Amino acid sequence: MAESGYSVPVVLRSGGADDPITRVRLLAPDNPLVRIATFHVGDTGCPLRLATRIRLARSQTVIALAETAGGRVLRAEGMVAVVVGGCGFDLPLEPG
Fold first, then answer.
1. The pTM is what?
2. Closest Cα to residue 23, out of 60, 61, 72, 62?
3. Cβ atoms within 10 Å of 29's Cβ, excluding its own
4. Domain ranges of the chain
5. Across residues 37-55, what is the average pLDDT?
């Protein structure tokens, strides 16, 4: 859970493998701009530990796509609950 969507920590890790990660993309499907970041790692992405902070408009699933030197695409995702949105507006609570 992230109290504020203005600064949500994200850490990506991959173990050692024969096929190093060369590029990572972070996606937030419910943000105004879906593609949050693209990281070009080069041939040093094995093992990989990448830490950053992202901005989220609302609670949503964040998706990481990692491309390997061999052309494979690896996918990881995680649900992030956001109390206050971080893209310039607060989300109204709906009765429930």
1. 0.79
2. 72
3. 10
4. 2-84
5. 82
